Amino acid sequence: MEKFDLHILGCGSALPTTRHFPTSQIINLRDKLYMIDCGEGAQLQFRKSRLKFSRLNHIFISHLHGDHCFGLPGLISTLNLLGRTAELHIHSPQGLEAQMAPILSFFNREMTFRVIFHEFNTHTPTLAYEDRSLTVTTIPLRHRIPCCGFLFAEKPGLSHIIRDMVDFYQVPIYELNRIKNGSDYTTPDGEIIPNARLTRPAAPPRRYAYCSDTCYKPDIVKQIRGVDLLFHEATFADDAHARARETFHTTASQAAEIARAAQVKQLVIGHFSARYDDETILLNEATAIFPNTVLGRENQCFSIG
């Protein structure tokens, strides 16, 4: 099965701690890297996770709070120092380009590559990016400013050729692509060989959903139903429910309620408040509702699906 991994670079919230970096993640799909949010220190964590800068071409920013985008100037500067020439695409809500342009023009006056900004709608699910392997769709969230999560959905693969059957029927090589795409094979004698005899179904496409930052928002369940892996913010424990509501964040038990309602396969919680020296309380509250929950940790890697 092709690689589809989640690397967590940071899973803390806005206030810095010695235990967590601000929010940032990397999706590795078939050795193409896609960054989600870029808090301070993201490029250092990138190195620690032994990822290659050259394979990163798209960055998705959920919202314009500093703990989700303050790492961008440093990362772009590093890529410039490395002599990058490939374009870098940054997808975000409206306003990021206006903020970044003067910083880049001041600190990176001789850029070796283009940075291209793409703005997306934060009110309705929107296709933010698509290539041959996947689609990235926004998940409208509810925070203090416009904010979206992201749904990374692998595209369905082609059927797998059963080599013994292809050899048995002496299928020409030039017919294989048609057969992978679902066509039957007609022998020189006119016999029709059903596609199901020549192929095995491709593995089901995998999906990953990222939801941070947001208050409890049950209407996202429909969009993320059945995903292989869900990352949902769990900033606070239940005893800080009022604070969560005030700051438009989620408790661990609320994140678990979302996961249970959406029937996801696994839940990773993160974006932990700096008030917690030990996130076990968050894990316990979440697993009481959705047992297949784990704490996000820096430099942790999850194989999706």
In short:
With 305 residues, this protein is an alpha/beta fold. It has helices spanning 42-48, 72-81, 96-107, 163-168, 176-180, 195-198, 221-224, 241-247, 252-262, 280-287; strands spanning 4-10, 24-29, 32-38, 56-60, 88-92, 115-119, 127-130, 134-140, 148-154, 160-161, 185-186, 192-193, 199-200, 207-211, 229-233, 267-270, 293-295, 300-303.
**SS-based class:** alpha/beta
Q: SSE string, helix = H, strand = E?
A: EEEHEHEHEEEEEHHEEHEEHEHHEHEE
Please work out how many helical segments DSSP would assign.
Answer: 10
Overall geometry comes to globular
The description of the largest β-sheet is:
7 strands, mixed
Task: Give the N-terminus to C-terminus distance in angstroms.
Answer: 10 Å
The CATH homologous superfamily of the largest domain: Ribonuclease Z/Hydroxyacylglutathione hydrolase-like
Would you count the extended β strands for me?
A: 18
Uncertain stretches: none
CATH class (first level) name of the largest domain: Alpha Beta
The helix content, as a percent range, equals 10-25%
What radius of gyration results from the CA coordinates?
Answer: 22 Å
Assign the CATH architecture of the largest domain: 4-Layer Sandwich
**Looking across the biggest beta sheet, what order are the strands in?**
6-5-4-3-2-1-18
Task: Report the mean per-residue pLDDT as an integer.
Answer: 95
- In the CATH hierarchy, the third-tier topology of the largest domain is known as Metallo-beta-lactamase, Chain A
β-strand amount: 25-35%
Tell me the domain tally: 2
